[in-house]
Amino acid sequence: MSKQLERLAEFEREKEQREARFYQQAQQNVNQQKQKLTSLEQYRIDYVKGIQQTGQAGVTATYYQQHLSFVGKLDKACEQQMQVIARAQMAADQRKQMWLKQQQKVKAVTLLLDKKKIAEQKKEAKAEQAMMDEFATQRFFRAKRSPF
Question: Which residues lie closer than 8 Å to 31 by C-beta, 6 or more apart?
Fold first, then answer.
């Protein structure tokens, strides 16, 4: 029984490590998506500054309208990236919950295994004590029978 429990504990630990890796990967994905958003936002800021600088020199309405339209597309891309981040964050949160749940399983199996080991140690100590008591009793009776 103890060997089976030890194998189960090892299996659950491996599962926990796997879940931790999945969570870490999901969290890295969130960070990558946030970096993409930051890059998009920075590009938008730089693009708008460029339009303003060019606009000071004087541009046609069509030119200005085209650039504003592109800024609108950048805004939409930023909004879509925020949605990607939200989905990635939800996935990371789910992975975290799975990892935490698996950690609880590992703790439960480890606790059970520890209790089992303590019970076995107590049983062995009790058997050893009984054997020592028996040995002491026999020595006492032998010493009593012996005239010396």
Answer: none
CB neighbour list of residue 22: distance below 8 Å, 6 or more residues apart = 95, 98, 99
Q: Are 125 and 18 in contact (CB under 8 A)?
A: no
Q: Look at residue 60 and give its three-state secondary structure.
A: coil
How distant is the alpha carbon of residue 98 from its chain centre? 8
User: In this structure, which amino acid lies at residue 19?
Assistant: E
Rounded to an integer, what distance in angstroms lies between the CA atom of residue 15 and that of residue 105? 10
pTM attached to this predicted model: 0.73
> What does the alpha-carbon distance between residue 38 and residue 32 come to, in Å, rounded to a whole number?
10
Residue-wise pLDDT tens digits, 79-88: 999 999 999 9
Residue 81's CB: how many other CB atoms inside 10 A? Answer: 18
Q: Is residue 148 predicted with pLDDT exceeding 80?
A: no
19-to-27, 77, 106 alpha-carbon distances in Å: 12, 32, 12
* Residue 12 · residue 107 · CB < 8 Å: no
